[in-house]
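S.,

Sequence below, as promised.
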Amino acid sequence: DDVVFSPSGDTAYAVGSGIGFRMSTDGGQTFTATTPVSMQTRNHIAVSRSSPNILYFAHHSSAIGINVYKSTDAGATFNQIATGTNFNGGQAWYDFYMYVNPFDPDYAYVGSVDIWRTTNGGTNFQNITNGYAGGNVHVDQQNLDFHPTDPNQMFCSNDGGVWRSSDRGTTWINLNASLTLTQFYRITSDPSNYQHLLGGTQDNGTQRTTGSVNWAAAFGGDGGDVCFQSQDNTRILGETQNNGVQRSLNGGNNWLPATTGLTGSAAWVGPIVSHPDSADIFYTARQQVFKTTNAGASWFPISSGTGGTIREMDISRTNARAMYVTSGGQVYRSTDGGSTFSIASTGLPTRTITSIHVHPDSENVVLVTYSGFGAGKVFRTTNSGTNWQNISGNLPDTPTNDALIYYPGFSTSTYLVATDVGVFISNNYGTSWTELADGLPNTVAIHFDYNLAGNKLRIATHGRGVYETSIVTGVINYSDNRPSDFKLLQNYPNPFNPTTNITFQIVDDGLVSLRVYDMLGREVATLVNERQKPGTYTATWDSRGLSSGVYYYRLRAGVHEETKKMLLLR
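The prediction came back faster than expected:
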C-alpha cells in the first residue's frame, strides 16, 4: 500500500495487507519483515524528514475504521495515538492517506473524506476542512504534499481538484479556476440540439451546458446516467448515486425526484434508456427492469429471469422488444420488451461488464466491454448472444469502460472504445485498433456520446472533463468486396465547409496513402497511410484551421495513383 524512504535514503519502509510491515536498511535492496504494528485492509506510513526517528502509521478496515500510530524509535515500536477519534473512514478503501510535515514532526495529517491534522505530535487530531459542514475544501481526499522550502505551505488534491494552504492547513485557497478536472461517469447530448449536453459526475452532481465550456449544475449528489426521451427531447431523466432518478419536463431547466415505484438495490450508476419510438416511455434497472409510461412520474417492475443487480442495459432501435442487460459477468437477453430474460453469455469471460451496446440497425449485433486486466476487453455477437467473439485485437491490457458503434446514419466498420489509457478506434470491425489521441489528455476515458444531427463525437473522462471532435478520425470500410478497378471518386460535398468525404477503391492488398495538398503543393493533411485490403473506403477530412481555396487530394496504392481537386468555401 505504501513505501517511504528516510531522508538519507538508506532506510525504507514498506507496508501492505499482503506483505505486512517490512524495513530495509540498504536503500531497498533487501527488506526484513517485522511486526511493530498490525496491517489492515489499507495501510499508510510517513517518516519525518526533520526527525527521521519519528514515523506515523495509519491503517483502515471496515471493522475498526481508521487508527493512527506513532513511532519515536525509527519504526522499532509503535503506540496508538488519538485513540477514539472518528476519522470518518467509511470509504477509506478509496480516500485515505497519512503524511507528516517535513519541517515539523508535530504536524501530521490523515486524509479521508476530510483532512485531519494534529499540531501536538498526535495527542489529538482535528478536522480542518469540514467538507460537509461548511468548509470550502472539496471532500474525498486523495493526496497531499508540502512546499520544499516553506514549512507553512502545502497542497491537497481531492475529487474536486487542488487546494493550497499557506498556514499548514488552517485556511485553503481553491486553485481550480483554470483547471479541467471534472470526473464524469456518463454524458449524453440532446438529439435535437448538439450543443445541449448533460453529464453525471463524481461528487459534483449532474452538470449541464448549452454550448459553453463552463458547465452549470443541474442537480446535486453523485451524478449518474442521463437520457433524453426519443420522441420529446424536453423530457429528460437523470439520477443521483444508486439510481436516485430525477426528471425534467422542460429541457433540463428544473428537476424533481422520480423514484416512485422503484425498489431493490441498485448499481452506483444505474442504467436509463428511452424507448426508441414511443413517447414518455423510459426503462431503468435495479434488481429488475423497471418501466415508466409517464416520463418517470411512476415506475413498475416488468422483468424476470435475471440475477443480481443490473448494471448495464440497452434496447434495440429497430426492434424495441429486443433488450439486453448485464449483471456481474452475465449478459441477459429479452425478446418480449423486457418481460422475460434468458442468459446469453456463451463464450464470455466472467469479469465485470462495463458497457453493452446494440447495433443501431441490427438487434443481432451487440458489443460488450470489460473491466480488469487479462485477455478479452471487447466482445461482439452477430447472432443475438448465441455466441460471442473476442475482438480485442491489439488493444492494450487495461480496463475498457465503454464502446461506440459509429453510425453516422448508415452502417460502418468503425468501432471505438474508451479505456483507462485513452480512446482507440478500429475501422475493420475490431480486427485491429489504433489510438485516437489527438487533443486528448493522459487520463481515463469513461463514456462516449455521438450526436448524429451535429456530427459530434464526445468522450467523457474521469478527471479531465469532456472532449469532442467533429469527425471520427480514420477510414470507414464500406465493402470488403474486391472492386473491378482502382478508383478515386470526387469528394462530397463539394464545395464544402468544414468537412468533406472522399471515397476510393483499392484492388490490391498493400500500402495506401491519401494526402491533401494546398495550391503550392504543401501537404496539409494525411488521411490514410497504412496497409489496406481490397475494398471500398471513405475518409472524412476536417479542414478547420485552413483558409478558403482550392485543395488537391492524391491517392496512392501500389503502382496506382490519382489526384483530384476540391473547393473549400468559408
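The radius of gyration is 28 Å.

Coffee later?
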